[in-house]
Amino acid sequence: MSGRLPGVAERAAALDAADPLAWCRAEFVEGEPPVRAYLDGNSLGRPLRATAARLQELVVGAWGTRLIRSWDEQWMQLPLELGDHLGRVCLGAAPGQVFVGDSTTVLLYKLLRAAVADAMERGRPQLVLDTENFPTNRYVAEGVAAETGAELVWLSPDPARGVELEHLREHLGERTGVVLVSHVAYKSSWRADLAEITAAAREHGALVLWDLCHSAGVLPVDLDAADVDLAVGCSYKFLNAGPGGPAFGYVATRLQQRLSQPVQGWMGHAEPFVMGPGYRPAEGVRRFISGTPPVLAMAGLADTVELVDRVGLEAVTTKALALGAFVVEVVDEHLAGLGVGVASPRDPGRRGAHVTLTHPDARELCRRLWEVDVVPDFREPDVVRLGLAPLSTSYAEVATALEEIARLLD
Ligand SMILES: *Cc1c(COP(=O)(O)O)cnc(C)c1O
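A: This is the predicted complex of the input protein with pyridoxal-5'-phosphate.
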């Protein structure tokens, strides 16, 4: 280590030595040559070594040997069984409410469309969402509004923060039908208050759809306890399912019979193998599945849920926030003088598992960091995001990235 930032490497070494999750790093595939610092696990998590073995077994065993019989033997149930496990370990969801399938964009469409149709029938045509939400969420909402005649109500939060209860309240009324919020804002890392926002929307007779892409597998998400209606999330960020890993959806038991999703496919039918005329939705959460689920792409998700189950989500969250605190501390101490700002909440209770830095030359800085094998990501216009996936990221790696940022800016 260059030691450009006095004491930082030493502090990182001490934190790594005391880290109860340090052993988890060896569970992940080590690249050849190894990357110096990977800080983008919030966009694409690293693969677990167990996943290479699981894929091998899938190809040779369940697919190569059992062939089509595997659908009956395990795959028909897989989206629901894996959903239940994910729900228990990461989402605070009782069985029968979580399923895996589709991409986040498609699943978001299905659940949002179902919620808006239900709300419109109840004379509540407004869909409330915020301008800082991830592009896909805004675009899907625009499409659903065009299709249904729903009215979009835009919240414009402070970009350095996110959706706040008091601000949201000003936009809730008797015409509010659905509220769409991301639990953790993809840019600022602001963590919205899931329980309070859900309760406020409920008070107004609206349904809430939470996007958990940046919190699933890393932060506590107590869906049942907060009485959440609907949620979707991604499996390839902190849940390490890999590129193209499917989304997951949550539909509270009390809503499953009431809502109709728009992509009525044979796999959500009450009797898929009868193949009869007319769609008849399955009982329970299966009705939200449309077609054949991506079995191979679920392997990494299964392995990450098993690992989180082993170590406990609480330990994962604790380390995520400690890594974030380390970043904030070092930036304040050493990088503020070089024009680097912290654009994420400083309060760990309001922050997700990435820390957003700002610098006027962020784009060029990020490009040069990638050249030296230090990998965060850039977001328009002046943002570098440091993703802190706690199972696979060391404090030393974070220190290396911050040293490189200091060197390049100097
Ligand atoms: C990553 C992310 C998505 C991604 O959607 P895909 O369909 O998987 O491309 C959607 N919403 C949010 C909030 C995200 O962070």
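The longest strand covers residues 176-182. Residues 103-105, 134, 136-137, 182, 186, 211, 213-214, 234 surround pyridoxal-5'-phosphate (CB under 6 Å).
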